[in-house]
Amino acid sequence: MKSLPVFLMGCGGVGRQLLQHIVSCRSLHAKQGVHLRVVGVCDSKSLVVVADVLTAELDDSFLLEVCRVKSNGSSLQTLANSSVCQVFSGPEVIRKVIDIGLLGKSTGLAFVDCSASAETIGVLNQVVDFGCCVVLANKKPLTVQMEDYDKLVSQPRRLRHESTVGAGLPVIASLNRIISSGDPVYRIIGSLSGTLGYVMSEVEDGKPFSQVVNAAKSLGYTEPDPRDDLGGMDVARKALILARLLGRSLNLDNMKIESLYPEEMGPDVMPLEDFLVNGLPLLDQKIEDGIKQASANGNVLRYVCLIDDARCEVGIQEVPKDSALGRLRGSDNVVELYSRCYEKQPLVIQGAGAGNDTTAAGVLADILDIQDLFP
Amino acid sequence: MKSLPVFLMGCGGVGRQLLQHIVSCRSLHAKQGVHLRVVGVCDSKSLVVVADVLTAELDDSFLLEVCRVKSNGSSLQTLANSSVCQVFSGPEVIRKVIDIGLLGKSTGLAFVDCSASAETIGVLNQVVDFGCCVVLANKKPLTVQMEDYDKLVSQPRRLRHESTVGAGLPVIASLNRIISSGDPVYRIIGSLSGTLGYVMSEVEDGKPFSQVVNAAKSLGYTEPDPRDDLGGMDVARKALILARLLGRSLNLDNMKIESLYPEEMGPDVMPLEDFLVNGLPLLDQKIEDGIKQASANGNVLRYVCLIDDARCEVGIQEVPKDSALGRLRGSDNVVELYSRCYEKQPLVIQGAGAGNDTTAAGVLADILDIQDLFP
What we know:
Two copies of one chain form a homodimer. By secondary structure, chain A is an alpha/beta fold.
């Protein structure tokens, strides 16, 4: 049985779901000859780690206890009385995390970032140097400035990040296969926000934009402040991740990112309630006009990421009504990829692109996929 | 630079395209730190191999010469005068191939089967025992009786076969990810024959079945004898490969395989010309009736592979008009996969599922994907 040491940063919904998946897959992974040995877990404030990281592990009942504690909103400190682990807090955390990263040199380590923090890149770049494998659900380490990015991807076989684009949808794995087979990618166009996909397909049916956004918020499809979705930054990060995989040297601030609300309705200027009640309706007409114009061309509007030789941008585009993108309904993600092998008809990957379950499943598949790098 | 020894069985269209891809990807792979060292190539009659398999390689100009020789319909024997290699023929070939397989024990070896032969399973099972990695475009080694299959897959990490289903489409890679993440697959339904996909979407438009099949044959979309497509055996092999990946213990002869022509029109009974002119038109009415019936239910007919808890079968099924399968036009393949993560809306993978270029690209991506298993 091969033992894969795993360290997890981030105990939000995705991180907790990952721990639960790991526990529930024990017999499956045993059949595959692999055991995931979780040596530690941290959030932004505290760290729980086994006393002997070289041999011990947090057992399954403890991992489920971590999930319970965190989903109750309690601190990992609560677990300090357990005899199976040590708990650290405050400035000690980072130092101790780096210590754990040294496992990369001896037994190998899957260093998993399920946080949403922009601050993990420093730690990640250090543990990459130690020889750790890094698995990311967190997009932010991949959308830092190029210099830090280049360090992070310096050992590309040791880095996996399927769940940073389209959650568990096999977008990154498929793109990496196409790249390594020498098939040149001409164009990627996709709807990579379930929220914006839902909004754009609903307004297509004639409903006012303001009404659709408010309904989406009520259904829990949007962030608490829908401007976090409508601004396009989340989609832009995904586009940047794809473009950089294709070898493009780009930063977020070079990209054209279309926001669906104007600056004067931004979170710093207009309170949320005001935006929802008074701001949004002012945007209805422009969207309606765009839909009519597109329809006259046999097209529909989608909020897409678009990457080709000339462009890496996100925003509203007209797409053919009868394409995979054009036929998209609801909150599924879809990616169309054009290359020499998929020249006239694209390679299409479509499905749920959000949710803790599928995101954590993508992370887990990544961890299993690097098993051959472990001694 | 990591050196990956590669041995190729089969110099048909896919094998030759693979050699060309390997040559044209030299600088790309060098950037990735990998060099594919082709130590030998064989077809069913002859074997070309470097004198020292531990260190030497067939150089790029020689590989392209192999492609030229084989696409001219000449024998690999033609290359016997070259000083860079040894050529073997007849009964010596198998013995020598096994010798090459011994590389698996020392340097590792990617043993690639791009033939269409049912006879390679014996050799493959021997080299698997030596520790070789096996990469297949050939479906037949995966559709043998379970006992031989179980031997072949005994080291699952050392076996890749993306191009056996949907050519280079990332179907197997995606399914393997889903399996290893513990996401239970409830149902796979797909159109895995470009020919039958084309035929079923054309007859949907009201054209007679006989006319569509004859047109497809003229366009080169079918095998020389279209009954090789219409019989469903090729789709059945793909379905069996997927079902066995899901852990089902099944053989081809347990499967329900619907043929689109009756036994009395089979190749042993009716000459091809007779089938095309007189046989096919007798089948038009049944297909037309089926389409009308489906249409009354809001459905269309597709020739699908269908795998769920109860079934692993191939044949004509009614599918919803507005599903990915129902919207399929032309010769693209499409796979819909339902699992816990993709429960209401399936994970959909769609695109060109045939052609030497994309099939060989899938094989090459598989070879690159096993690089971590090499010393």
